[in-house]
Design goal:
Elements (H helix, E strand, L loop, with lengths): L1 E4 H7 L4 H15 L3 E2 L4 E5 L4 E10 L4 E10 L13 E6 L5 E6 L3 H18 L6 E5 L3 H10 L7 E5 L3 H12 L4 E4 L3 H5 L4 E4 L18 E4 L12 H6 L2 E4 L2 H6 L15 E3 H6 L12 E4 L4 H17 L1
Parallel strand pairs: 1-7, 8-9, 8-11, 9-10, 11-12, 12-15, 13-14, 13-15
Antiparallel strand pairs: 2-4, 3-4, 4-5, 5-6, 6-7
Helix pairs in contact: 2-3, 2-10, 3-4, 3-10
């Protein structure tokens, strides 16, 4: 059994085409029905303003599977500690023995989440997309753009964040990566000329409305991953020509389909794995409006963990 810490994992695994292919293959396996993926185990630690999520999946035929433990303790910054942490346990799919502990402190989740956004854009956005509106100014907002540049020729960003100083700091960081960046005080202004909109916030109330959407835009919503979070108004979902999620069950419980309160959804729901596995073409023209809701799945964790372990073992 091997123990790897974040520093070694970061040296071995980055946001690159090989990592993207590994996560995309995991989604495709899910779409083909080749994945055993139980529901998320979630536990609140209310007295410490914390929560713990456990995700796992087995891809049939794979050599290993991962169980990810992901704590979030949101008062930690007051103690000088990070709010997010975690690790992945990797087991042999043949014997059940522990092969490795990836003490990544949440890094692999950061990577696979960013790559999922790029995969969604690869299959749903206009091929010529070059301008991205980002709602949010945290680390995932940066990583989403880094991953998008693997699949689209991104050159311009428009950013909105609740804190103007956060948006300005984000803009400076992204300009340092060779991008043209504009900071906006209103969501609608940030989105007005976008080819792709990415929402990467912890918002508990909808930020993006149908009135903010230009024709033919693709929206990837990343932030709603628990019952109390929402980023998209229901009008965004009903306006879309195609709505896609990682899994319908998770979108209904943790993601943007919560907007319908468990009632009938007035449009067809597609799952990203099947879109990939079946080669579905949901974008019929440059004016097709697409929305993808990503809540984070166990198959992504198993895919990125297996990929990380192969890179680490190769030295």
């Amino acid at each position: 059994m091997q123990l790897y810490h974040r520093e070694a994992i970061e040296r071995a695994v980055g946001i690159d085409h090989e990592a993207l292919a590994a996560v995309e293959a995991g989604f495709a396996a899910l779409g083909r029905g080749e994945v055993v993926q139980p529901p998320i185990l979630s536990m609140a630690v209310e007295e410490a303003n914390g929560e713990v999520d456990v995700k796992t999946a087995h891809i049939r035929g794979a050599e290993c599977f991962a169980i990810k433990v992901s704590p979030g303790f949101f008062d930690n910054p007051r103690l000088g500690l990070p709010s997010l942490n975690g690790l992945m346990l990797v087991f042999s799919a043949r014997t059940g023995l522990v092969e490795a502990v990836l003490f990544d402190e949440g890094y692999l989740t950061l990577v696979r989440t960013a790559l999922a956004g790029a995969i969604a854009a690869k299959h749903l956005s206009r091929p010529g997309s070059h301008r991205v509106a980002v709602l949010g100014a945290g680390e995932q907002a940066e990583r989403q753009v880094e991953a998008l540049r693997l699949v689209r020729d991104i050159d311009t960003l428009d950013v909105w964040a609740r804190r103007s100083e956060g948006a300005e700091a984000y803009a400076e960081r992204m300009r340092g990566r060779g991008l043209s960046v504009n900071v906006h005080a209103e969501v609608g202004d940030a989105c007005a000329r976008a080819d792709i909109i990415v929402t990467a916030t912890p918002s508990r109330t909808p930020l993006l409305h149908a009135r903010d959407l230009p024709p033919g835009v693709h929206v990837t919503a990343m932030g709603s991953d628990s019952p109390e979070k929402r980023e998209l108004d229901a009008s965004v979902l009903t306006r879309a020509d195609a709505f896609v999620c990682d899994t319908r069950a998770q979108s209904e419980g943790n993601g943007e389909l919560k907007a319908f309160g468990g009632g009938e959804v007035p449009f067809k729901v597609h799952e990203l794995g099947r879109v990939i596995a079946e080669g579905q073409r949901l974008r019929l023209s440059d004016d097709t409006l697409t929305v993808c809701d990503l809540t984070g799945t166990g198959v992504q964790d198993t895919a990125i963990a297996g990929f990380a372990l192969s890179r680490l073992a190769a030295g």
